[in-house]
Amino acid sequence: MALENGEWTGSSSCRFPFWNNRRYPTSGPDGFDKMYLVHFSSEDPQSSMERWAGRVAVVTGASSGIGAAIAAELTKKGLKVVGLARRVERVQELSKSLQSATGKLYAVKCDVSNEPEVLAAFKWVKDNLRGVDVLINNAAVAYDTSLTGGSTEELKKMLDVNVLGLSVCTKQAFQSMKERGVDDGHIIHINSIWGHVPPGEIYAMYCATKHAVTALTEGLRREIIKLKSKIRVTSLSPGLVKTEMPPKEMLESRPALDAEDIADSVLYVLGTPPHVQVGRTFYTQTTASHVIWHWVRPTADLEVVEGV
Ligand SMILES: NC(=O)c1ccc[n+]([C@@H]2O[C@H](COP(=O)([O-])OP(=O)(O)OC[C@H]3O[C@@H](n4cnc5c(N)ncnc54)[C@H](OP(=O)(O)O)[C@@H]3O)[C@@H](O)[C@H]2O)c1
């Protein structure tokens, strides 16, 4: 890609053939007059997924929706994927459907809000597959619990799964990478648009847990840099996605993404060269009122250019 007269020309090989040799606007259609644009190498990010073949990814919440889609795509890309969930039989079924894939999906029963179960799951990974190279922190629960009269148990459950569960899995994955000298590992948090905008009158605690994920992403990134590690940290923030999580009436009345769209973004993020760190990425359905906005920082020598 090159910047010509304030516009990017897609002259390098892009994973989306449609965009090759086209001009990209430096401002989005919704009035974003500044976007952070990245000058990638000419290497096709899709093909660089090849470097992950044979490596080990743990996906939490692999029994449905986005987690199942991510687990399936990573397995097709040749990774050894460990899918954690309470409904482990669903992950086993998914694994059976992926028997012709170059990778393998292993189903491990685990409630991420139960620390001993998380430790046992990561021990299983260590004993059977040596350790973790990629962690996808996807498991979450969302209850529309009232702050002024709702169930404390539900409020606590959201914090236990979405915040503490994610943090315990992160710690175990980082330690697994560190003890094996893995310096190109990647930790991806499946966040939400609601992790960046203030909550409205619904789902306030769920929004709070996703805001926590935003803070935890940046905190982890900085802690990892301080430890002089090049393990990458990414937060992916979808808008509405067609899964079992959102209420039916919400899905019927608003534009929504497919779970596979988020899985595709995981492949994209993992496939960027090791010196590129995609920090936060927002995804919405095209007709929703946001543009896709990549916020990217260099880990070493990436050229980041601010558009005009
Ligand atoms: N759908 C959306 O509109 C949307 C939008 C933005 C962000 N997200 C985020 O995307 C992620 C995936 O959500 P989804 O839409 O795919 O929802 P989903 O279809 O309801 O899937 C949630 C997954 O989390 C797992 N899970 C829940 N509690 C768990 C626990 N205690 N231990 C282990 N696994 C647990 C579930 O597995 P078990 O029940 O089998 O344990 C299930 O596999 C979440 O982080 C969510 O916040 C979703």
Automatic annotation (TrEMBL):
Signal peptide per UniProt: none
Pfam families (UniProt xref): adh_short
Keyword field contains Oxidoreductase: yes
UniProt keyword list: Oxidoreductase
A molecular function (GO) term: oxidoreductase activity, acting on the CH-OH group of donors, NAD or NADP as acceptor
The keyword Secreted belongs to this UniProt entry's keyword annotation: no
InterPro entries documented for this protein: NAD(P)-bd_dom_sf (IPR036291), Sc_DH/Rdtase_CS (IPR020904), SDR_fam (IPR002347)
Family of this protein: Belongs to the short-chain dehydrogenases/reductases (SDR) family.
Protein name (database record): Dehydrogenase/reductase SDR family member 11
Classification lineage: Eukaryota, Metazoa, Ecdysozoa, Arthropoda, Hexapoda
